[in-house]
Amino acid sequence: MSSIRIEGNRELCGRIKVQGSKNAALPILAATILIPGTTILENCPAIKDVELMLKLLESMGCHTERNGGQLKIDASRTAQCHLKKEYIEGMRSSIILLGAMLGRFGEAHIGYPGGCVIGERPINYHLEALRALGAGIRIEEGQIIAEAEKLKGSTIHFAISSVGATENAILAAVAAEGMTILENAAIEPEITALCGFLRLAGAKIEGIGTRTLRITGSPLHETNYFVPYDRIVAGTYLLAAAAAGGDVVVEHAPAEELKELIKCLKNMEIDLYQHDDGIEVISDRNYQALPHLVTAEYPGFATDLQPQLAAVLTCAKGNSMIEEKIFDNRFGYAAELAKMGASVRIQDRCLFIKGTSGLQGNLLEAKDLRGGAALILAGLMAEGITRIDGCGFVERGYEDIVRDLSSVGAKISYC
Ligand code: EPU
After folding, report:
1. Which is it for strands 107-111 and 143-147: parallel, antiparallel or unpaired?
2. Do residues 271 and 135 touch, judged by C-beta distance below 8 A?
């Protein structure tokens, strides 16, 4: 796994580009197996998780071709198969293939995606939803075996608005006979993107962007789609500029989807300007703490930006507290921040941060994707040199964070 070296305490200046969204691209790629023809996706990020999803699609017989940000997926000739354990276990979102495979093949054999370092990640709501649509599902030796001669529309009420379970249900519902009603569905922008893509491909979906989706099964056809910009990558770069100081425009940052982060940055007294082509951050590194921030489902504050914001708050004026409501173990990065002199304390699902006047570079280890990004931001703020091992995790979601941050003047390199 690659390591990253940062010489910190340098202002950032210029324009930084944002890639296409990981969490929109992954379910859309899974959806392409429902289309017996060629899908063309523009702005598809070149990240590890996407490459892994492509390998999974190829093992089912899809032909895939990348040309810069454009991906062509030809799913004319596909077949159900046993998917490689290492690919399935390589990322959590392989589970979204379950609904799509059931829709295309009427059966699916897929390994269990397992838990991960940010907390327990069960799939009970995914399986419940697919069962409600008529799938028979059993678990044998760690394999999920799902079968459905015919998927049938049904009403599903989600106990919690799970992003992945909503996606799985949508993918199976577009291939089901009749109408499916999804109640208390997730409304993250990535769900809206998946529905928008499917609609372009001929799916009948009403209520997009609301907690109740009505989906009527219908045949899908070939289509082209532009993957939206990644709100979490955009948020990470806004926070990088706030932390390091300087004047940076984050191009294509989706302001509407980043409303909660923008509110936080304003409360921290960091200057932000919305332009037609992006958001500008001007920071002199003098910013206030946030007394109580709670992560929540969309439109609340995104859990995927929680670690990066926490890193920035280590040098705020005053004390901050972050309550993590989505995952039960998403403060793994805090011990690494403490090695740099940050004053952090975890209690249950809360992280208490006492603002300090500065961090000191150190040797750190990334343990997950967003936690790794948080350590990179801390490295930008710190005095001296920071080396972060385990940055392969970061490559799962960021095309090239070293390239992007270098483009605005950061002294950052792979080592
Ligand atoms: N949950 C259950 N049972 C289920 C499904 C979820 O108990 O069947 C629980 C989870 O354990 C978790 C909560 O519900 O505590 C929310 O999980 P959700 O299903 O909404 O999340 P996900 O689909 O597994 C997606 C993103 C995550 C992001 C979350 C929340 C993708 C590929 N992943 O995960 O992104 O944090 O939604 O917004 O879309 C990341 O990009 O770094 C990342 C972790």
Report:
1. antiparallel
2. no
Helices 22-31 and 97-105 pack at an angle, to 10 degrees, of: 20
d(CA 381, CA 377): 7
Q: What is the pLDDT of residue 120?
A: 78
| 116 part of the active site | yes
d(CA 284, CA 270): 8
Tell me, in angstroms, the distance from the centre of ligand 1 to residue 165's CA: 9
SS3 of residue 367 by DSSP:
coil
Pairing of strands 411-414, 4-7: antiparallel
**The token pair that represents 209 in the structure block:** 């962007």
Name the band, by pLDDT with cuts 50, 70 and 90, for residue 114. low
User: How many other CB atoms are there within 10 angstroms of residue 14's CB atom?
Assistant: 12
Looking at the DSSP assignment, which residues form a beta bridge with residue 411? 7
Of the candidates 44, 116, 195, 350, the residue annotated as catalytic is 116
Give the H/E segment covering residue 335: helix 334-338
| Nearest one of 232, 236, 110, 100 to 168, comparing CA atoms | 100
Which residue, by CA, sits nearest to atom 19 of ligand 1? 162
Q: Which residues line ligand 1 (CB under 6 A)?
A: 23, 26, 92-93, 120-126, 160, 162-165, 186, 188, 190, 303-304, 326-327, 369-370, 397
Q: What is the pLDDT of residues 222-236, one digit of tens each?
A: 999 999 999 999 999
pLDDT, one tens digit per residue, over 243-291 is: 999 999 999 999 999 999 999 999 999 999 999 999 999 999 999 999 9
Cα 58 to ligand 1 centre (Å): 25
